[in-house]
Amino acid sequence: MSAPPPVAASVLALRGITKRFGALTANSAVDLTLHKGEIVALLGENGAGKTTLMNILFGHYLADEGEVLVASSEGELRPLPQGSPQAALDAGIGMVHQHFTLAENLTGFENVLLGLEPLFGLARGRRAMRRSVEALIARTGLSARLDVRVAELGVGERQRIEILKALSRRTRILVLDEPTAVLTPQEAEGLFMALRTLAAEGLSIVFISHKLDEVLALSQRLVVLRAGRKVADRPTAGADRALIARLMVGEEVEVERPAPVHPGPVALDLAHVSAGSGRTRLIEATLALQQGEIVGIAGVSGNGQSSLAGLVAGLLRPESGAITVLGRQGAASPAERRRDGVGRLAEDRHRDGMVGDMTVEENLVIERRGEMPFSRLGLLRSKAIRAAAQEAIASYDIRCPGPDAPLRLLSGGNIQKLLLARALAGGPRLILANQPTRGLDVGATVGVHRRLREAAEAGAAVLLISEDLDELFALSHRIAVIHAGRLTPVVDAAKLSAAEIGLAMAGEASSGFGAAA
Amino acid sequence: MIRFEPRAQPSLLLRIAIPMVAALAALLLSLIILALTGAPTGRAIGLLFAGAAGSVFALTETLTRATPLILTGLAAAIAFRSRLWNIGAEGQLYAGALAAVAIGSGAIEGPPWLMMPLVCLAGALAGGLLMLGPALLKAKLSVDEVVTTLLLNFVVLLFVQMMLEGPLKDPMGMGWPQSAPILDEAALPKLVAQMRLHAGLVIALVAALLVASLQRATVLGFEMRAVGGNASAAGFAGIPVAATLVKTGFISGALAGLAGAGEVVGLKGYLTSDLSPGFGYAGIVVAMLAALEPLAVVPAAIFIAGIFVGADTMSRSLGVSNYFADLVVALSLLCVLVGSLFLRYRLRRVGPA
Amino acid sequence: MIDALEILLQANFWAAAIRIATPLIFGVLGALICERAGVLNLGIEGIFVAGAMAGWLSVYLGAPLWLGVSVAAVTGACLGLLHGCLTVILGLSQHVAGIGITLFATSAAYFGYRVAFPTVTTPPRIEPFQPLGLSFLEAVPVIGPALSQQTALTWLAFAATGATAFVLAKTPLGLAIRAVGDNPASVDAQGLSVAGLRMGALAAGSALMALGGAFLTMSAFNAFFFGMINGRGWVCIALTVFASWRPGKALLGALLFGAFDAYQLRLQTLAGGAVPSQLFLMLPYLLSIAALILVARKADYPRALMKPYIKGER
User: Fold this and answer.
1) DSSP for A369-431?
2) Are the C-beta atoms of residues A95 and A172 closer than 8 Å to each other?
């Protein structure tokens, strides 16, 4: 395999892209050029405009200004008709979304076939298709079981199907949106190998990420967006973590370490507890959590975290083993857990946290609706509700049109502040924080972290479930890792490195956790 | 290119205007269809309005017809608010009517102050109990309540026919399948002398007020709205979702059952198997026209009742089939459904850059 | 008791069972296609009525039988597209829109009937489809004569079952329909139109439902009556869940239902007047509810059923 030529032709050019949503400018005069066989990393904080830019490329949005040019088969840059996903596909642009676009009732191979055959024909040429997909797998190492229903596949395998799907369409430009967010470090390494092979064959790749190590390891060029503007476009060689972080955030960031604690009585005690079903089943989990400390549970989503959270939140019953939550043994309902003093943040705030069509104040008191002072004899007391809401809005700085506005009108960060206010109301002794900052911007994240730290200092036990290693290190006193439903022993966070956690997240035996066992 | 953009909060004016425009649009569409059949449209409109509201008699007839529609409309509105799709108001109405005649036609005797509330309660209880089945199946086994309630409508109607040919048959009815008459003590008083309008209207109006305050001012109403808004989040917050659905189902069924009891003890005086010309299904239209707001159910029911009563007059004078009224009602539902889109979205013209 | 068992060996009994099953086969196939694409079509009851009325009326006005069948199918397809405009294009509640379509189609058919025949009291008749009388089948005991008594429309229902099964399982179109009912983003990302597929499925499915109605007025009977559909559409929705959205099981479910219904009709005659007839008439509805409860725990609904797809939202 020969090395790529020193100056390769451009295959894609975005010129002067500007996109506004009302008062917000998501992209401001962004230029981006991509060459044949090149891997470009597109970096930026949440809300920096990466996703908007890619949605314009794919025709999901229309740019207010600027144009998209794609090389024709003769190598000449031609304007791409805007606002047409079909045109983007035809031009050879493929995308692997963060949320997979797979039909789970079909097999992997059937998903690859979707849209490739003429819709109103018979299924001819499937054998040839099959051979070429298998050849692709052999060449790139993107191994996946093609004849199993996607519903039964794990996250990594699903992603490989997604990439195979994109590559089967004569794709020349592949965009990957945060592809490693759901992968173990080891799976990610496999993905990088495949991407390097593909780039060497002439595929041009845009790799969206905010994980600095990956970017340094994989890309040849860095493009950094901040607040909708391009602030850097430079070769990766010569850059380091500190430089990229500074470009992304605009200032030096320092990682705060949690203050040491003097833990109090046990708030949560699991002994060999199994619960849940399927891929998210929790198996023989043992864990003890004391008041005043923050224990982080690291792991890739879908490895049993939701079962663990369900046990603590009161949504799930243990099948075997012993669970004690704030003195109550065994299962309890969500309402009982709350009354016992468990404050709970839902993993998916849109699905489990909020009732969007109800008002801000109603969402704030929904857990305490039946208690004094919010109701008496089954009748709501609107004055008390209003007063409590106004107090929470002020002290948590919830930006909203008013306590009687529907919650769905608020931004993600403000919704999370509200849910935090609700979870912390009444001073809980145990806090379940499940992915507490997922999808939030930097400012909102800092606010959530501060509240959790303060709660712990005030004597609450915090169970922090997160995929974000930076967050885990910033908050946790002790950390355990969950993989395939099994929890490792809990280890002092100061004695762990990110690499050790990474290995454990992939299910490998790790010296750090092994020693503690 | 025209695009839909989410609207923050619709103004009160818009919330009132949209159902009214939808109702007018439905009426207009139906009149176009009527014109296409060659009927004299101008006269038809005149007769429709005269029949619905042209005289004291017409007005009392419209209100009489609106009485069960308010109750079935409330039944649909309260259930749909919790996303419990009770399409079985027709069956629950018959169950309520059956219970009312079962105890009101001589099985129990007592003074009016006892008998009137008793028959009404019996009707409500029967309707509520009938809806408990589908609500429990939905809450416990997630069996789709739309299909179960729809199928039960047919079962209940057959059961009513069976009772009317059997145990409840009027011995003095000269062989007709109808029940014995309601005792005078159990019959609701008339509101206007010489007219058919009866105290059932008062019951329906009070029910609308009660349902409105239940939803706004009580913990149960809070829970019902939360379950309808997002059942998963409601459960996470500690609301017993299944129990709330079952309670909602019982109240919804009870309202429909009350409608049936009211028709029997207020209007007809006895039960036949053609008591309801589709009040249960029309209640769905009423609820949608009212955007599921209990107080708005009252004007919406009066509108639909006016269409039914007006179409009767029109059909008698012009020979146009009174299925015309059903057509207007059906089109009202489709139009208000499209109209509901404008409550959540606004249309905006988007030009290419 | 012997009489009750002997019924099962009568060709006439099986002929009746198949006759009762035929409209249900059409209806369940139609509902299944719509639901596989992710749209619940509660317009089914009204589409049955409209199909029964439109097909029969065109034949009454002089059209050949097969033209009447086509008119019914086109009527159904149009109503399906109307449902699609409301639910697929505008993303409105599939429950309420479906009830709306049923109310609209039913009232329009009844109103249309009264416009065409303002005063008649006995329903006007047409010359319906005749049994094909396939003599080569007569040799097969019981089932042979039962099948040979059926009309062409029943055979069309059998053919439609095979065609639906083939298209869903073996063709690119079927793949796309199954995918759009599971995760519409999957077909959108591959450049296929979510709305196009769903509208197409609704049109085809609703056309089949209308054929179910047309069978009643053009083959089982020879006239149009008010209330003749009598909940058959709702029964089909229940049977679709029972058949777990598979054409083969749909056929089986409909035939089972037909056999049960035919059996209770015969038992009713055997019982004489000892048991009220309404008790027997309730059985089909109760049976449908029982079927729903039976499969409730393991019902594997298409994942995107009743979820409108709006681009850019998740």
Assistant:
1) TTSTTTEETTEE-HHHHHHHHHHHHHHTT---S-TTSBGGGS-HHHHHHHHHHHHHTT--SEE
2) no
Do A322 and A268 meet the contact criterion of CB atoms below 8 Å apart? no
pLDDT bucket at A510, cuts 50 / 70 / 90: low
> Do C182 and A106 count as a contact with CB atoms less than 8 A apart?
yes
**Residue C273: partners with Cβ closer than 8 Å, 6 or more residues away:** none
Residues A166 and A32 grouped into a single domain: yes
pLDDT along chain B (353 residues), means of 10: 67 89 94 90 91 93 97 98 96 97 90 93 98 95 92 96 90 83 91 91 98 96 96 96 97 98 95 94 96 96 96 88 92 94 75 43
User: Which pLDDT value is given to residue C118?
Assistant: 86
Name the band, by pLDDT with cuts 50, 70 and 90, for residue A426: confident
Give the domain-ending residue among A221, A249, A277.
A249
Residue A438 in any domain: the answer is: yes
CA distances from A1 to A143, A200, A223, A321 (A): 21, 8, 28, 56
| Chains A–C, number of C-beta pairs less than 8 Å apart | 81
Supply the range of the domain harboring residue B298.
2-349
Contact between residue A136 and residue A197 where contact means Cβ atoms under 8 Å apart: no
**Rounded distance between C-alpha atoms, residue C225 and residue A106, angstroms:** 44
Contacts of A313 (CB under 8 A, 6+ apart): A334, A337, A342, A344, A346, A432, B236
Euclidean distance between CA atoms A73 and A82, whole angstroms: 19
Contact flag B330-C103 (C-beta cutoff 8 Å): yes
- CA closest to A351 among chain C residues: C314
pLDDT tens string A82-131: 877 788 888 899 988 878 889 999 999 999 999 888 888 888 889 999 99
- Name which of C96, C261, C288 to mutate to probe chain B: the one with the most chain B Cβ atoms within 10 A of its Cβ: C96
What subunits touch chain A, counting only 3 or more CB pairs under 8 A?
B, C
Per-domain residue ranges for chain C? 13-117+150-296
C70-82 confidence digits (pLDDT tens):
999 999 999 999 9
C111 contacts B324? CB cut-off 8 A: yes
Residues A277 and A174 in one domain: no
A38 in any annotated domain: yes
For residue A401, say if its preceding peptide bond is cis, omega within 30 degrees of 0: no
Q: Choose the weakest-confidence range: A160-169, A220-229, B171-180.
A: B171-180
Task: Say whether residue B231 is in contact with chain C using an 8 A CB cutoff.
Answer: no
Is residue C72 within 8 A of residue C109, CB to CB? The reply is no
Secondary-structure class of domain C13-117+150-296 per CATH? mainly alpha
| Residue at A477 is within a domain | yes
Q: Do C190 and A105 lie within an 8 Å CB cutoff?
A: no
Q: Would the CB atoms of B141 and C42 count as touching at under 8 Å?
A: no
* Chains touching chain B, criterion 3+ CB pairs below 8 Å: A, C
What is the percent of chain A with per-residue pLDDT over 70, rounded to a whole number? 93
Q: How far apart are CA B155 and CA B153, in angstroms?
A: 6
How many domains does the structure of chain A reveal?
A: 2
Distance CA B270, CA B254 (A): 20
- Asked if A69 contacts A79 with a C-beta cutoff of 8 angstroms, the reply is yes
**8 Å CB contact between C303 and A104:** yes
CB A141 within 8 A of CB A190: yes
- Domains in chain B: how many in total? 1
Q: Which helix (H) or strand (E) holds C169?
A: helix C152-170
Say whether both A60 and A170 belong to one domain.
Answer: yes
Q: Which domain holds residue A127?
A: 10-249
β-strand pairing of A39-43 with A65-71: unpaired
**Which backbone phi and psi does A431 adopt, to 5 degrees?**
-120, 125
Last residue of a domain, one of A249, A275, A306: A249
The confidence score (pLDDT) of residue A46 equals 65
